Amino acid sequence: MKIRINETMLFQSKNNVEFKLLVASDFHYNKKFKLNIFKELEKIVVDERPNYLVIPGDLLSSSALNYHNLSEFLEFCSKHNKVIISLGDTDFENRKRNFTCNLDFFNNLEKKGNIKLFRENNNHSYRFDDVMFYGYSPNINHDNSSTKQSQLFKLGLINYLIGRSVDKKLYNVLLTHDARSIVKNKEEYQKYILNDIDLVISGNQGLIPLDRYNRLDETILLSSRGIKSINQLNIPEVDVIQVKKLIKRMEE
């Protein structure tokens, strides 16, 4: 199955850093997952040579039973670039086996040096050269209504942002699975550090998708359509983002 590549170039004037991101979201990996997608993605990793593979949530499906092929794929990628993962709602549930299977999978991932994982309710950030990654992975309670879960997500993300010290000299990237709350409540988020974040990357287009790109004043928000998103017809997509230094012209 051929994967569609969406290419984007962004320019920044904060520092001298230049880098490339490969964004692949919403794998919803389970026993029905088409394994040739991994081969296609591995080829993209080799050909594009990104500095970072970013996965903003829903890596697993609730029916995941065997993690072997997914683990091998992530291991391959980690030998070529840094892998950075935030979690989504289906990463936390597993209807056919106890959800601790998923937790064991993520616990094992964290033992690999080139894979960085944002867990629920952690305050981690990861710096590589002059790029800083932040990530928010919500706590999921499937007994809650979607409205209640959305409210909890909003409060959780705001609490994650409150009081966070952001170095404005760095290029700052925030990963979160669902950015619709940010778009709907951007004035509220901008009271906190959102204006100090340069790029927000999300997955989960959902049934009412966002535009792929939104500009929140100085912050750019990219919503990936994903490998296996709800609203698309079997067309896996990834995003390749090049961030380049903006060179200012010398005045004559």
Explain what this protein looks like in three dimensions.
- The protein has 252 residues and is an alpha/beta fold.
- It has a single domain (4-245), classed as Metallo-dependent phosphatases (Purple Acid Phosphatase, chain A, domain 2), CATH 3.60.21.
- Helices cover 23% and strands 26% of the residues.
- It is built from 6 helices and 12 strands.
- The protein has helices at 36-48, 68-78, 100-109, 146-161, 180-184, 186-189; strands at residues 4-12, 19-23, 52-56, 82-86, 115-118, 125-128, 131-136, 171-176, 199-202, 213-216, 219-223, 237-245.
- The strands form 2 sheets. Strands 1-12-2-3-4-5 form a 6-stranded mixed beta sheet, with helices on one face. The chain has a 6-stranded mixed beta sheet with strand order 6-7-8-9-11-10, with helices on one face.
- The longest helix is centred in the middle third of the chain and has 16 residues, at 146-161.
- The chain is globular, with a radius of gyration of 18 Å.
- The termini are far apart.
- The model has no long low-confidence stretch (mean pLDDT 81).
